[in-house]
């Protein structure tokens, strides 16, 4: 694989720590990057994604779509030649799992009246 086809990326997590920099083929998709991030995620973090679908990658202020390649996501400005491109990682649990967890945490309410008749 030619050296020109590799892109150096690092991923900034919510607490300011980084994963990388690591060199990836320019044809890698965002979904492939998310899988790699999930496998490299620090185990001692408070917030941990359960699946790659819980991750959002942001580059240049845009949320990247899973089917896009690194080449399609690169910004034409702001990146230094030979420098690593930084993508921000946000953990956003899927809606269905968040609703399920919320239902489990809610306690059943007891029907009681606190009225006092004088």
Automatic annotation (TrEMBL):
Record bears the keyword Cell membrane: yes
A Pfam family this chain is assigned to: Rad60-SLD_2
Residues of the Ubiquitin-like domain: 7-75
GO cellular component: plasma membrane
Domain of life: Eukaryota
Membrane topology: Lipid-anchor
Subcellular location: Cell membrane
Keyword line: Cell membrane, Lipoprotein, Membrane, Methylation, Prenylation
CDD domains, alphabetized: Ubl_MUBs_plant
InterPro entries attached to this UniProt entry: MUB, Ubiquitin-like_dom, Ubiquitin-like_domsf, UBL3-like, UBL3-like_ubiquitin_dom
PROSITE patterns on file: UBIQUITIN_2
Stated role: May serve as docking site to facilitate the association of other proteins to the plasma membrane.
Name of the protein: Membrane-anchored ubiquitin-fold protein
């Amino acid at each position: 694989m030619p050296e020109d086809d590799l892109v150096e990326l690092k991923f900034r997590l919510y607490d300011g720590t980084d994963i990388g920099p690591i060199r990836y083929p320019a044809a890698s998709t965002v979904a492939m990057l998310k899988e790699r991030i999930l496998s490299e995620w620090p185990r001692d973090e408070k917030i941990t994604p359960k699946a790659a679908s819980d991750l959002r990658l942001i580059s240049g202020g845009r949320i990247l779509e899973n089917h896009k390649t690194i080449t399609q996501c690169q910004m034409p400005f702001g990146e230094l030649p030979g420098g690593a491109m930084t993508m921000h990682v946000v953990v956003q649990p899927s809606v269905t799992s968040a609703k399920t967890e919320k239902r489990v945490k809610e306690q059943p309410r007891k029907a009681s009246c606190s009225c006092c008749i004088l």
